[in-house]
Amino acid sequence: xxxxASLLVVILFFGIADLAAQSTYTTEDKKAIKYYEQxxxxxxxxxxxxxxxxxxxxxxxDPSFIEAHLRLASAYKVLLRYDxxxxxxxxxxxxxxxxxxxxxxxFALGLMIYDNGEYKEARKYLSRYIQTNPNNAGREGxxxxxxxxxDFALDLMSNPLPFNxxxxxxxxxxxxxxxxxxxxxxxxxxxxxxRKGNTANDDEDIYVTEQNDEGVWSEPEPISDLINSHRxxxxxxxxxxxxxxIFTSCQAPGGFGSCDLYFVQKEGDTWGKPQNIGQPxxxxxxxxxxxxxxxxxxxYFVSDRRGGQGKRxxxxxxxxxxxxxxxxxxxxxxxxxEGDDLSPFIHVxxxxxxxxxxxxxxxxxxxxxxxxxxxxxxxxxxNLGYPINTKDDQVSLVITSDGTKAYYSHEVIENNRxxxxxxxxxxxxxxxxxxxxxxxxxxxxxxIETKKPLGASIEMFDIxxxxxxxxxxxxxxxxxxxxxxxxxxxxxxYVTRKGYLFENLTFNYLEKKSREPEVLDIYLTPIKxxxxxxxxxxxxxxxxxxxxxxxxxxxxxxxxxxKDNEQIRMEIxxxxxxTGSTSHNLELSTNRAKSVYDFLVKAGIPKERLQxxxxxxTKPKVDNSTEEGKQxxxxxxxRIL
Length: 641
Description:
This protein has eleven helices and 34 strands. The strands form eight sheets. Strands 6, 7, 8, 9 and 10 form a five-stranded antiparallel β-sheet that branches. Strands 15, 16, 17, 18 and 19 form a five-stranded antiparallel β-sheet that branches.
C-alpha cells in the first residue's frame, strides 16, 4: 500500500512547512497569534507536548484559527494520535468549508482518514482535492493513486474470506511481546522471538516450544544460552527438520553491518555455537528476517543493500556444491517495490512465497501477499485479502506443510505507545493456500548389521528431469533424517555414506491427494563381497530392454558410487517375474542387464570392473502370485564381487 509515502508527505508538508512565519493569519486575536508562534519554537525544539498546549490555548482564544488547527493536527500525527489529528483537520474544514485558503486540507484529511481505514470517506475528500485543480502535480498524482488503491481495498472488503484467528493457548503468550514465529515441517516445534518488555531497550531472545501428540504446547524455553545473549536475537527461521537455525543479531562484535544473519546447527539434542553467516549475504547494510528452504540450502532474507528496487528488498542466495553461500540475487520488480518488502516465508514446497509489502496494492501500510514460483519466474503477488489484511500492519506469517494452518503475531497498541504482541493461528482459506501441499518422510539411518546410527548424505531428485530437489544429512548422533515430499513430482532418493552401498527409494507424488507422513528407517549395507543392492529407479517399457530416459538419475548414482570406490567390481543382474517362457525371460533379463552394463562402460567405467548376467525368473525375491510380488521380482540389481 502507499500509506508509508502518504504519511511522510503529510508530516513534511503539514508538520514542518506550515511552521514558517506568516504575515497574515485567519485570526486577528493577538494572544492567539502569540500562542501559535510560540508553538513553532516549541515544536522545532521537539517539545511537542508544549507545542500542543500552546496551540490549544490559541484555539481557546479563537476556535476559527485555521492555521492552529492544521499545526495541531501535524503535532498529533508526530505523536501517532491519528484520531485527534483527524478531528483537527475536520475542525479546519468546518471553518473553511470551501478550502478557499488553499491549505490542501482536503488532501491532508483524505490521507488521514485513508490511513485510519475509512476508505469511502477518504475517497470523497481526495476526489474533492483533485476537483480543486491543485497546483501540485506530485500531491495530485498521489491522490489519484490512492483513489485507485481505495477502489482495490473496497473490492477486497466486499469479498471477505473466512477468517477466525485464535490466540495460541497457555502456556504460550505469557510475555508482553512474542512475534515472528517459525515452525518445523512436522509442526511439532515452534520458534519465536520474545521481548519481555515493550520498549526498544528490552532484550530480544529466541524461544522454542514443542507440541505433544495430543496437540498441547510445552512451556516455552530459551533456545540455548549459546544463542541468546545480552544483545538482540530474533526473526529466526528453521530448516524443515529443526536442525539448522538462521537468526538475526544486531550490533554484535565482528559484524559486517548494523544487523547480520547468523547460523547454528543442532546435533542430537544440543545446539552448537552460532556463527556469522558472513559475506556475501551480510553486508555493510542491514540484513534480517531470514527464511530457509526446507533443506536449508536456499535462504531468502531482507536487506537494504544497494542494487534493490526500493528501501528494503527480499533477496535470495543458495549454497554451492562446496557449501558456500552464493552472491545474493534480488527477487526483482515482480516481488520487490519502491516501498518496503519484508518478512519472506518460503513454504517447504520451495515454490510458495508469502511476504509483507508496503508497495503493492492493499488495505494497510503493510499487507500480506502470496507469489508462486514457476521455473525461474514468480507470479504476480496476490493480496491475501480481507480480513486477513486490514488497515493495520500485517507483518509476517508462516504456513504448515499441508498448507492448511497459519501462525502469525498480532500486535495491539494501547494509548498509542504501549505495544503488546501475541501469537495467533488460523485455518488458511482455500483461496490463498499453496498450490502444492507437502508431506514428509522421516526416520533414522542405521548400519544394517550393528544398528548403529549413521550420519549419511540424503539427496532427492525429480526422476523425470534428474534435477536435485533436496539435499540434507542425517544426524550423526542419533541417525534421524527428515525429507519433504511435495505434490506434483516423482522422486528418487539416495542415501549414501563412505564405506556403504547406497540405498535408493522412490516416491510417486504426481497425484494430488491427502497423505499421511511416512516413517521409514533406512539401513545401509557395508561394502563387501556378496553385498547386493536393488536399483529401484531403472525403467524399461513392458517386454523391452531399452533404458527409459528417467533411468538416468539412478545410473548416474551407480557411476558416482563406482568412481568413489575404485577398488570394487560388480555384477549387474537382470531378473524377471514368471510371466512368459523361461527362455524368453532369460533373454530379456540378460538384455536388460547388458543395457545397464553398456551405459556404465560408455560413461567411462572400465569393462574389467563390470560383468552382467540375466537370471530370468530363477531368483524371485517374493512370491509371484500377486501383481505387487511380480513387480518386485522384475528388477535390476548389482552384486559386489
